[in-house]
Structures
1.
Amino acid sequence: MRIAKWNTAFTLKRRTGSWFERIAMLLMLAGLCVMILLPLFSLFSKAVTDKYGQYNGLSNFIDYFSTPALLHSLQHTVYVSLLTAILSVVLGFLFAYALTRTNVPGKMFFKTVSLLMLFAPTMMLGIGLTYLFGNQGLITTGFFEALPFHWDIDLYGPTGIVMAEVMYTFPQACLILVVSLSFADFNLYEAAKTMGAGKGRIFFTITLPNMKYGLISSFFVSFTLAFTDFGAPQVVGGSYNVLATEIYKQVIGQQNMGMGATVGIILTLPAILAFIVDRFVTRKQHAISSRAVPYRITPSRKRDGLFLTFCILASGMILLLIGTVFAASVIKIWPYNLSFSLKHYDFSKVAGGSLQPFWTSLRMSAWTALIGTAATFVGAYLIEKTKSFPVLRQAGYFLSILPLALPGIVLGLSYIFFFNKASNPMHGIYGTIWILVMANIAHFYSVSFVTATSALKKLDKEIETASDSLGVPRYKTLLRVTIPLCLPAVLEMAMYLFINSMVTVSAVMFLYAADLKLASVSIVNMEDAGDVAPAAAMSTLIVITNIGVRLLYEAVTHQIKKKTQAWQTRQQ
Amino acid sequence: MPQSYLSIEGIRKTFGSFTALEPIHIEIPKNEFVCLLGPSGCGKTTLLRMIAGLESPDGGRLLVEGKDITSLPPAKRNIGFMFQSYALFPNLTVAQNVAYGLKEKKLSRQQVQSKVEEVLSMVDLLSYATKYPAQLSGGQQQRVALSRAIALSPDFLLLDEPLSALDAKVREKLRLEIRRLHEQLGMTTIMVTHDQEEALTMADTVVVMNNAKVIQSGAPEDIYERPNSRFVADFIGAVNFLEGMNGGEALAIRPEHVRLGLGQETGSYEAVIESLEFRGSFYRVTMQVQGPLSQYFQSGIMADLNRAVVKQYQLEKNRRVFIQLPEEHLIRFGPNRRERLEVVG
Amino acid sequence: MKKWMGTAFTTVLIISALTACGGNGNNANVEQGANGNKTAAKGNSEITVYTALEDDQIQTYLESYKAAYPNVKVNIVRDSTGVITAKLLAEKDNPVADVVWGTAATSLLVLDQNNMLEGYSPKGIENIQPEFKDTQQPAHWVGIDAWETAIAVNTAELEKKGLEVPKSYADLIKPEYKGMIVMPNPASSGTGFLTVNGLQQLMGDSEAWSYLDKLDQNIAVYTESGSKPAKMAGTGEYPIGISFGYRAIQEKKGGAPVEVVFPSEGSGWDVEANALMKKDNIKPEAKEFLDWAISDEPMKKYNENYAILAMKTDSAVVPEGYTKDPISQLIKLDLNKAAETRDATLSEWTKRYEAKSEKQ
């Protein structure tokens, strides 16, 4: 029996996967460890050391929970995030409902507008709100006294943070809810109607239960995003401290790395909870029956009118905010001299330093998109399509999904602790653009990994074995068949990585070297120094770049679809 | 028995706690057309993939003309494999698909092209060379997959449920085509199917498998006429079981061998027609045997009768008839096979 | 597929190339092409300079350095005074910086008390006025200029509210300015610290704290940066900003409706100074940098931004934006005492007013 078992192991070893595949798999795992796991270990070990690097057990945590000011930041963050998540889910639901279950005109337009916020760094939302609702804001002053009314909402503090976070998380919640509203079986609605159920009853017994996982998921996503965001509270938080700004203060202002790490771990808790809930929810969400009938929208002018009004208001707010930032960036002196001027785009006289950060961001994002797409795709391919090391593949999968639970700020901190040790053989990348690229790849790994995995899952399972049976090495088939078939997903991953690298500030703000300042970081610096208009200008540059990249992506995808139509249509 | 070309010696496989294959022994002569037949999950596809080298066995050996090929990668086994899903590369044209494996060989561009043309004309698809798979019908895709599999002039052609995705008409046509190619090219062909009719019509040898084991193998007529077990009898064609007749021995008889008359004769049983099912060229008549003998026919008895007989006797529901079970057509599993019967039943 | 990958790769390379070119012209940290300059023979070397100088000033200052030392790569680490101080203290055992440039003397004195500075008297130290440099030989720190508390007041906003422009510290605590004043947090901002320290040395400790308590009633928010209050006053976000002379004057020059007020009681001040970090490997380039930093060329540039130079000058011209000789505006101050009490002052301040500080 023992011999048989040994024999089994031996034959497995002998015959599963090529050497090439196995080496690639080990390299991928090593890469994931260096990128994610080891830095996290450094963070945890830092959280149990004091200012001078001595082990001090849980005393950082005890300190944290016994310092009222620090504890406040936790309460603030929970309060703001809860409010954000509730508002975001409600508004996102209404918007998603309008897009999927009503005959509101201009759906394409509304959908596009709702996604605009994904192209902006969160600081920009804060800046926009400052220009709208700040003490000299457009709305606060009644369009510079042009209107008879004034409206001061007392922006700085929780009001401003929640407003900014809702605008930031709204598109994400909306995307999730649109998907879960699209999966409906109209048969259920017709069955309910034939049994005489009223609209309210149908809504509460069919619509809501059907999308409960979507609601849970969007709630947690919004909560986590708001919980870990740095940009918006930095700009409109006023004296209202939250965890993310607290970490920044501990690490940058007081150079107290131990406490920074401690707060970082606390910051990760809801994200980990969200991660677990999301895994759970994804598993529970069963595929819809193949006999389901898509939802048919019944005509109702009253309903459409109400939802149209809502869509116009929501989109109007988004456009007003972005438009105001664009406008503020070309106004000479807000609010005293409203003449047109491009002087804020000359960054040499402000805390930004020059246009260099913008170029650095562009360069970093391009490298992140290129290397990140390649690495993630190969990673997903190895996990999805090979048979080597089943246990290690499981581990690889876990490590690939783990970054979903890691706030950027925590990842950034972990990177300092891990790579800034002179004893680390990879210490050399500290202070170069490569650590920024690496942090971004790690930060955004999971989403592009999932994109790649689901694209690969859609392919015929036998492509690799067919290649084996024809005597063609797998890497050739990967290049010649698999990647071309996944090209739309590959482009989507690249675009996602690029856009997010352009806007992110949390992961990179601890890592950039003096000569590698990034556009998003310079927005923080400029805003910090009171150079709000140049910060608006830099935000505008980022948004325009991202819209450009998105348009490019759409154009290329369109071309590819046209070119490959012949092999896209499936015939039965 | 002709000399064995491919020997499968004790090949076995488990996936975790699930046994996919008990140690299997099969000898396959050269140029034979062998069908592995069995219900889904019986291990037939696993066995085929092991012959191809796409799965590795936990133990046992594969020999080709006495040479051990158990650990050779698929590329070195000289096989052509046709997948159930066809696994055509959707982004490559028909010609590119067929040429895919050829390009790995040291052939000139000319040689590749002429080979592609040759095999495509064999399956009558030359005019579709520049189309993409998605632009073809299911049957055409199947033929592309087939020509891709034979393009490398393999010693073995391995077919995994090649016809299952097609509709009945096309399927029948392609059966002939695959058989024709087999004869034309003289490869050893091993086909996996769960369709007994397919196996009986196409194969020289049928290997019936169930629960990870080979139950019976032999020529189609043998398997049909002389199934060695209740499972095989039931799996291949329709059959009536006679429980516990002849002192406990299990007997069976095919419906087409059940004779029917209107008057009582020696050895005939009285029965009442329960239903008449029109099957095109014949009627399937289901009856309940009357009297004390009915205990042997617990699930009734079927007889396949041609239309003329049904007309002649004016058979209809509730009509009283007499059936005869000719001794020469009775299938006996024998007491030595009881054990297997229990396992299977 | 190869084509696609090729295209993607080329795109990235092009972006990299373009962005690299885009930066060359205006980044101090990118080396300029060498053309037989005097230090070219030394080959390439680099120094790390920590500074709290304003971002917008650093580039102009460094122009003459780059011309003189084209082959030295200068890594600038710039942050607010409080952050730079904390960073230097945190790196005490393993200093990264070679040189500290243009950072508050009160902070350098703290470093010196921690035995972190190396004595070095740069060339030309004799031209520096005695009160703006270290008394030890060789000097542990050398000043380049001094800066002082100034109040930027948005006249347009005050007019709207019908309020007078405050002229003194005493005016600032009048109840009508409630919620209108912004001031930098002394823990992070050098300007904030010199203002609080100035009040302490002007009024005495307990008097100063009771004044700050009253001022706190009028403060809308404490900022991290010393510039931000002036800029906020410039946009009218908050009409009164306690800031420093240069920044307030810049706002006015930029066209904002701002009046620069030097409090009638006198201004607190600090010296922006340079120092050499004590470490195992002190680079000659670091000393050269310190020599350059008090030479005529940069001094001229400092003078464009700061009225009070550390250098002895004969010019009696009142700088633009000032109404009288700026030195007469400065109160009598003991920098050493300020450094000694810095820690205590900051923790007292934090205890009292942290709640209103930005992001705290």
2.
Amino acid sequence: MENRLRLFLLIPLLVLLSSGCALLHRNEVPDSEPNNAPVVSNASSPTSAEITEPVIEPKVERRTIKTPRIDSENFELGAYGGVISIEDFGSHPVVGARLAYHVTESFFVEGSYGQSKAGISSAESLFNIQVITEPQRKYNYYALSAGWNALPGEVFVGENRAYNTALYFLIGAGSTHFAGDDRFTLNGGFGCRLLLTDWLATHIDIRDYLYDTDLLGKKKVVNNLEASLGLSFFF
Amino acid sequence: MRCLLFLLLSCIATSVFAATNTLEVVVADPFIELHTGPGKGYPVFFVVSRDDRIEVLKERTGWYLVREHQGREGWVTEQQLLHTLDPDGNVIKLDAPTLESLSRSRFQGSLMLGDFDGASLISLSGSYGLTDHMSVQLTLNHALGNISNMEMATLDITHTLFPEWRVSPYLSIGTGLIRTRPHTTQVQEVDTTDQMSFFGAGVRLYISRRFIARAEYHNNYTYTSRNENEESTEWKTGFAFFF
């Protein structure tokens, strides 16, 4: 324990020392020119005017390199609505929001949040009991997922219109809050993105959310399937 | 909350609808190809030849939306746009992210999954670089276990040992708060909030563009109100992005 405490005290010292040194020297100009360089006075160089006048004027076209600011649109924010089947508690409407960051043309990461409300389970209606209270029927989740645009393509509407599409697969993890508890939740699914313009997209998603529960007395894995339609903006 | 939502929506509206400064360039290669979408799979539908002017409208994942003088719009690869000049004949330098830009970048966000003393851990963090080596990081952790769940918010200082290397180890030290919530199906216990501190070590691997893989280990100390402090281990791995 004592050794660990020493280690605990030594690590910050090491981090602070090494980064502190970098902080102290970050704004220093490299000492490439000696400070004690001799000062040349005008009196000692009477022919300096002749020297500064070049014999041949070089005509070199200097090309400057510009870094332009171009609008980047790699983030996508959207809302969705659909139906979620909450195992044992029926299918109910779900609404949610998602934020995605497109890393490459093929991969993206996505964070989503959705909420719904569970109904009455079969056990509750059969035996006229209440397994969970009314406030505990609130169902919400968040999911952090990685996505792969597996099948990019186009759909054609009539002769003159074509829209870009992508069929993508998602896998991720998150948490589901239901019956007063948070449960670690794995999610997976697929969807189709159809771009109406270069910044507006519609989505159709099928997603499965899996988590362990012992709510009805026996521990089991719950599969909650969700189907949704959504709209999103690239920005 | 409504104010925040309004602010967010106005930011997006500004970003989406604002008349951004477009860039006009001249094609210097024999030709450049216009794709129907921002991806290699989308077909080439038009070719712009040398000395023609094109307008660069926006960028997405290394692809650029351009408009040629007759109004056709298509997507061009970064490699092809590098062979264009501005109307004065100057070389265009695109701000393509590389390993070098990683060491110069200031903001980084990461998303990791792992284990916190047997509980599944979800971790989201954002960091701001003070120097090439040192950054401050805010992390939100959610650990979900069989007996209880934990929510943590920590602030740490991270020191990247070799920021210019593709693979670099880093050390971190930080402090924060941890809230423990026992499951409702367990023996009823009250939620507790305690202070914690940790030191950690990890490895960062630059993959491509703005993409980084990270893996790290933490040794946590929770200062409880009981006689003994709690010591716990945490490991996590995931992805990070820099801006």
